[in-house]
Amino acid sequence: MPDPFDSILYQYVYCTLSSTDDVACVGSGLFGGGLLPGGLEWLAYVLTAVTIVAVLINAILGGVLMMIWGERRLLGRFQGRTGPNRWGPFGLLTPIADAVKTMFKEDVMPTVSDRLVFTAAPILMLFPALLIYAVLPFGAGTWLADINVALLFIIAIGGANVLAIVAAALGSGNRYAMFSAMRSVAMLISYEIPLVISLIGVLMLSGSLSLVAIVNAQTLPFFIVQPLGFFVFLVASMAELNRTPFDVAEAESEIVAGYMTDYSSMKFGLFFLSEFAATIATSGVITAVFLGGWHGFDPIPSQIWFIGKMVAVLAVIVWIRASWPRLRIDQIMNFAWKALFELTLINLVVSGILLLIWPSPSTTELWYMAGINWVVFLASIYIFGKVLGPKHDPVKAGNIQPDVTLSDSDAPALPTGGGD
Amino acid sequence: MTENAAPTNMGSTITQVPNPEPGTVDMMVNMGPQHPATHGVFRMELRVDGEQIQDLVPHIGYLHRGSEKLCEHELYSQIITLFDRLDYVSNFNNELVIVSAVEKLMDVAPPPRAELIRIIMCEFNRIASHLLFYGTFAIDMGAITPLLYNFRDREKIQALFESVSGARMMHNYFRVGGVKEDVADDFESRSLALCNELEYGIDETDRLLTENEIFLERTSGIGVISGEDALDWGLSGPVLRASGVPYDVRVEEPYSRYDELDFGIPVGSAGDCWDRFYVRILEARESVSIIRQAIALMEPGDTMAQIRRIARPPAGEVYAHCENPRGDLGVYIVSEGGDRPYRLKVRPPSFCNLQALRDLTVGHYIADAVVILGTLDIVLGEVDR
Predict the structure, then answer these.
(1) How confident is the model at residue B127 (pLDDT cuts 50, 70, 90)?
(2) What is the pLDDT averaged over residues A235-245?
(3) Which residues in chain B touch residue A235, judged by CB atoms under 8 angstroms apart?
(4) Residue A136, CB half-sphere, CA atoms under 13 Å: how many?
(5) Cys bridge to B42: A205, A233, B38, B269, which one at CB 3.0-4.6 A?
(6) Measured between CB atoms, does B209 come within 8 Å of chain A?
């Protein structure tokens, strides 16, 4: 296990709390605290973790509120309107008002619902979303835990929220919710595979599953070296997140609100919260794995770099939501199995061959790999688009027939009624 | 888990058919009357196998107001307000039908200027109605942005309507024998400027949706109806023309001054949802051209024929129909010579188009049912009357 003292955040809080003669802090340059008397190092050890977790969870909640505001503002701009701008500067306090309103709503529970499952589902939904943050490196030396299987952890945790969706659907006993749960499970099974395989190219390059090691390995951001992997990961994680164009699990025009249909008040609020938390977490993973994490140039601190990149990814996700219709569930399945799965395999094979040529690539060699990968990326996307794209010739359809009447066209004749 | 108390057959008119797979039954799903995709209070009862629709029964009547019966108790001039409320997104077109029917019965011709004002209003209203269709149709498929763009343009049309009739929607502007009052002096320049803006707006929708790959996936080959079937069902309007039948009342039986104007009828070839969408895009462009031609033809003059204030058509029967944005809207009036009709029957295009819904949807997915219902573009005010 990597030493928790690798995290500057951890070190700083611990040394502030710990006693003045703690060997771990003396001479570290960060020594300055001594709030606790000697002999209570174990308490400092525990309190540090509690403090950081408390700060992180509150930061997540704040981040979710900011994202709700940001998404609504950005959508407003995309749609030629202002978005929320009444409460607070630039409408910044709107999500707080929304949260208060949500909390004070009546908590309705359907009579046919299973009370225990119905209540547990929103809580189950929130856990996986929060757990991902445990391994996210928000900046140089700024993380809660640097575990050596971080990516595996994220993938395992990220798939768990579908359990909550199924629980919500079963618990509420609503048929629309059942549709939503069935769609969610089908999508999880299909999209988890390209999601995982698309990361293997990155693993081969970095040689580690730890997010910190992956970020450190990115002398060149991996989205340049692994465009195909980046594309598939972005698409598959948007499917996992139920974002447009894959938002069939909560397609409001088809199945109302999906698994959330019967939920109200803070139970609904928790679903909402965990969805946004998961979106932010996923954009954090994308930033760490593909966009070079906290790397940037001075004097902007690494934490700001990381958050800036995260916001950029979120903006792209909102942009896609503003532009595109949603696919149908069978088309989404087709897309996963016929396009994304094959694309990841191509990426895997090409990356493997390139790594055979350059076993431990320097930055120059990474650029060579990037060039080849981009050619493969564009060519395979083009070919897949041609093969799997809609078979429709819009030019032929929809023609104007000027001044034509039924009598002089070859269209079926109007039925002539009798009499009169 | 508590016993699910809801019976499998919720007072349904569909009979429960056992699924060929042993031990399974099809699920009954009730869509509406309160549902985001039914465009009003429309209820669909679906029998689904997984997500595939096996059977569909539409239920209407949630917005029934007894308009036809009410018409028997109103003066002819008062009936116009009731017609405003039939298809409440294309009010002028509705008004045109009732006033032209009464004019036909009384054998009165409105002044040429009034005819042109009516045509311009109706075509603007057709564009407004189609703009609403593009937006709501996109929403049905999960694209949220086109609606906002189209409402922005529709708002401009309604501002023009307000300047002409004083109301944004329920105008009550057409009269038996003309229109309520002449348009303002700046009407022509305003309309022409609006035409340019609308053309841009329609192009914008076209660029956003028509060739979008996801949009094509969702619409092409969905809900196909052949020209013969469409005629058999009595479909009309863009839904019929998308199936390749160039039937348009404005050309087949020209009313008002449509015979003086030069315009084309957009016709589809496949009869699927994409065609029904694209026909409406092309139709809106044709409407812009009609408005420009009509404005060029406008000359100063009277806007009201010299008739009695209270219309008293002679005894007799009359059927008049016009091309509504949704199709062929007809009205049949039986008069006994008084100031009120003895009987009035409306042939609503939405209602007739809705009849094909079951045939169009069975075999498709739930998501497609929403899209197909969207392309039929029903207005419940007209379906239920």
Answers:
(1) very high
(2) 85
(3) none
(4) 25
(5) B38
(6) yes
- Residue A368 pLDDT > 90: no
Best of A81, A392, A393 to disrupt the B interface (most B CBs within 10 Å) is A392
φ, ψ at B28 (rounded to 5°)? -95, 130
| CATH number of residue B103's parent domain | 1.10.645.10
Give per-residue pLDDT as tens, B160-217. Answer: 999 988 888 888 888 888 888 888 888 889 999 999 999 998 988 888 888 788 888 8
Set of chain A residues whose Cβ sits within 8 Å of the Cβ of B141: 253, 325-326
For A113, other C-beta atoms within 10 Å of its C-beta total 22
DSSP of B101-132, one letter per residue?
HHHHHHT----HHHHHHHHHHHHHHHHHHHHH
Closest CA to A261 of B85, B198, B29: B29
- Is the CB of B142 less than 8 angstroms away from the CB of A179? no
A333-362 pLDDT, tens per residue?
888 888 888 889 888 898 888 888 888 778
Q: What pTM does this model have?
A: 0.84
Tell me the per-residue pLDDT of B307-353, one tens digit each, with 9 for 90 and over. Answer: 888 888 888 899 998 889 988 899 999 988 888 889 899 999 999 88
Inter-chain contact B2–A113, Cβ cutoff 8 Å?
yes
Distance, CA of A85 to CA of A77 (rounded, Å): 12
Query: Three-state SS for B320?
Result: strand
- Residues 6+ positions from A123 with CB-CB distance below 8 Å: A270
Residue B337 main-chain phi, psi, to 5 deg: 100, 0
Beta strands in A276-342 (DSSP E): none
CB contact under 8 A, B245 and A406: yes
Q: Examine residue B232 and state whether it is found in any structural domain, yes or no.
A: yes
| Among A residues 143-202, those touching chain B with beta carbons less than 8 Å apart | 170, 173, 175-176, 179, 182
Answer whether B111's CB lies under 8 Å from B303's CB. Answer: yes
**Is A415 in contact with B27 (Cβ distance < 8 A)?**
no
A66 to chain B, closest Cα gap in Å? 22
In chain B, how many domains are there? 1
Poorest-pLDDT segment among A33-42, A217-226, A384-393, A411-420: A411-420
> Is A402 part of the contact surface with chain B (CB cutoff 8 Å)?
yes
The whole-number pLDDT of residue B252 equals 80
Q: Which domain holds residue B125?
A: 66-384
Rounded to whole angstroms, how far apart are CA atoms B24 and A225? 50
Contact A254 B144 (CB under 8 A): no
- For helices A227-240 and A363-388, the axis angle rounded to 10 degrees is 60
Q: Residue A286 — left, alpha, or beta (φ > 0 → left; ψ -120 to 50 → alpha)?
A: alpha
Nearest by CB: A405 against B138, B218, B251: B251
Cα dist. B8→A75, A178, A244, B17, B116 in Å? 41, 15, 33, 12, 57
Which residue, among A45, A247, A24, A211, has the nearest Cα to A134 in the 3D structure? Answer: A211
Among residues B383, B385, B376, B374, which one has the least CA distance to residue B38?
B374
The pLDDT value recorded for residue A24 is: 64
How many A/B residue pairs have CB atoms within 8 Å?
171
With respect to residue B13, please indicate whether it lies within any of the assigned structural domains.
no
Question: Which of A328, A396, A412 is the closest to B231 by Cβ?
Answer: A412
Whether residues B274 and A397 touch (CB distance < 8 A) is answered with yes
Q: Is B224 on the interface with A (CB under 8 A)?
A: no
Residues 336-375 of B with CB under 8 A from A: 365-368, 370
Average pLDDT on A168-176 reads: 86
Count of H-run helices and E-run strands, chain A: 16, 1
Q: Count the residues in chain B.
A: 385
B53 located within any domain = no
CB contact under 8 A, B213 and A389: yes
